[in-house]
Amino acid sequence: MKENIINNNERAEVLVRALPYIQKYQGKTMVVKYGGNAMISAGLKAAVIQDVILMACVGIRIVLVHGGGPEIEAALRAAGKESRFVRGLRYTDEETMEIVQMVLCGKVNKDIISLIQQGGGRAIGICGIDCAMLKARRLKSGGEDLGFVGEIETVDTSVLDSILDSGAIPVVSTVALGAEEEAGRVFNINADIAAAKIAAAMQAEKLLLMTDVQGLLRDVHDPDSLIKVVTKAGLEALKKEGIVSKGMIPKADCCALALDGGVKKAHIIDGRLPHALLIELFTDEGIGTMIEG
Questions:
Q1: For the chain, which has fewer Cβ within 10 Å, the N-terminal or C-terminal residue?
Q2: Does residue 1 have a pLDDT over 60?
């Protein structure tokens, strides 16, 4: 009996400590980019969905933007197509674009919606084509042809606001409608960049990028070297020093893009850790790297 009382007291203490953060973020908009291992592992997937539902229940206006690289890869293999990457971006010919649209806007998006509904939440799945939410032009990377990979030109947040105002969670798959001379085309958009652009357009309180790394490390071989807080100017210095390099550069650039657009803070957090979102948002310590302007 005594053990149960102690456990209950500890549970109550956790909630009390979270209260100031719940009060601070109530009514604020946050954009979460969901991808990596957190989308593959059943246990991590369940934890993310629980986090998202809890965030919505305490009054956070959460927009969930998802990737789907492994599912796209599997669908391409099943169709007998080889993947090709140019500067880290998937070359997207017309057939690949059809598969990307089918997988992202269909199976992956609706699987996430189903999990949220099963968990007692309310969610609506949309993609950038819906209500012309995302409009894009063909992206050129160093003069190389990427096919139907797009660069976002405009974000219309009205459909997202309508969903949030209804009390539901928008779950966004990142394909976009062609702008102007590209009208009628559909483009594949990098999910990190899409999340940053959406966060900026919504003037979000936070952008949270769920990744397969701990955050920004001063020494990639030393998990204790996590950089917990850095300014945008400090981020640029870390890039020049080579501390932020390789695959972390695009993540850092997305955070800077969001901050430049008016987002207050951006976070790179470890999606391999169960309940990473709740730990980052509602505890004093947090778990990842926070970037501020």
A1: N
A2: no
